[in-house]
What we know:
Blueprint: E1 5-9, H1 13-39, H2 43-66, E2 71-75, E3 81-85, E4 92-102, E5 105-112, E6 115-122, H3 128-142
Amino acid sequence: MSFAQSLAVGRSARLMVLFHAAAVVGAAGGLLGAWQCAQGGWPLPASLLALLVPATCWVGQGWAVRRIARGVLRVEVDGLSNWNDAHARAALPFVPDRWCVIAGCAWISGTAGGRRLHLLSGADAHDDADWAQLMRWLLWLERGGGVRG
């Protein structure tokens, strides 16, 4: 079985929806907490929560979006992988150690060149054949493949 493929990793519309939804849920929780404080007769904490929590969620969401690794994940025929980010001149061996796929979004955590990377991609950023190939590779990894010697 061949695993050879190259995947552009980074932004996808599906990922951005998840990032924005997380920020909205966090801000809504903060506003609900502010409302509860106001109902309990604590106007100062309510005012602080109403201002600080949505602002913190907005800043945190922007920080998280900027921290998404962007580049190309290359999986070789034998299942081993390499990482090329936008600034690297040479591919670095990428060793995945954890991954999760949910709601059409894939998160792959690993190391490349001694640096920890969190690769995120969405099914909408790839054609069906590439996405299916990625799922086969992750299943192969799950079953114990891909160990670098």
